[in-house]
Specification:
Strand order of the largest sheet: 3-2-1-4-7
Shape: globular
Distance between the termini: 24 Å
Helix content: 40-55%
Structural class: alpha/beta
Number of helices: 12
Order of helices and strands: EEEHEEEHEHHEEEHHHHHEHHEH
Oligomer: single chain
Number of domains: 2
CATH topology of the largest domain: Nucleotidyltransferase, domain 5
Length: 345
Amino acid sequence: MAPENAQLLSVGIDFGGTNLRIAAYTPETEILSSIATPTRLKAGPMAVVDDMCNAVKQLLEMHGEGREFVGVGVGSPGPLELPAGRLHAPPNLPGWDGFNLLEEVTKQLHVPILIEGDANVAALAEFVLGTGRSKGVDSLCMLTLGTGVGSGLILDGKLWHGATGMGGEAGHITIDPDGPLCGCGNHGCLEALASATALTNYAEKLIADGKADGLQRLESEQGSLSAFDIAQAAQQGDEGALAVYAKTGRALGIGIANLINILNLPLYVIGGGVVNSWDLLAPHIFAEIESRSYVYALTAPGRAAASGVSCGGTLVLPAELGSDAGLLGACILPLHGLKSRRASA
């Protein structure tokens, strides 16, 4: 039994299609230690659950003594039905359709478990430890740009779920109805135009159309192109690579302008690997926001209605926490739930 006034302890699970990361966390020291292991998708869902639970048990043995354990937080790919904790046809998790992740983890651990979408936990981390804290806001919207485009909403200090946990799917806002096919089956979603996958797909299209000689040479030399390769080429002034970032930034700007018009929040945070090239994206993002969002035109810093925004004007900023946001958010999730319960008691 933990002593009175014991340090609070949580464990977070960052469940990715490639890797699992599990960490023990306290508010005072943040991550105490972590375990990383490949996600054994080919072995089936129960093998992955076993790996998660074994790592949690190991961390609790290492760090549980003398601390008050508050629970396990899990950041999971979606679509995720909440509060049930059931996955529905997740595109990067074959064989997981209908799998109740929350139920199976609870069976093995017999401790409080909280589960959220991976973009939600990243948004929570940015709210508690990152850009949200540094700007002093109580609400934000976060977009995570990676293989796809995820999004999370914090409204008045609380995660917004919608009716079934699927609220805030900004990655599937339609940007161009005649645009490329998205994994969801529609055309021209934000995910199909602004993810790392979309960025490389557009580069390949330019190469195929004979409009990116520099990228074509780079691909021939290396055998393939990554988002990082395209970013480096753009930083060096390659016209084809700059065109890729212009198109990606424009799609992001349209999507963010729509979110600003709908939500009127003080802060919009952009995270994920693509944001390492923020300086390439930002001019195109803000050109679209300025032209398409009358709310931004009135509430951006220095504008007519900016004084009504808690942080001095509507802000669109790159995330602060980088690749650790998902793991940190999963760790924070049980502590955030405890804080909310105490506040409402």
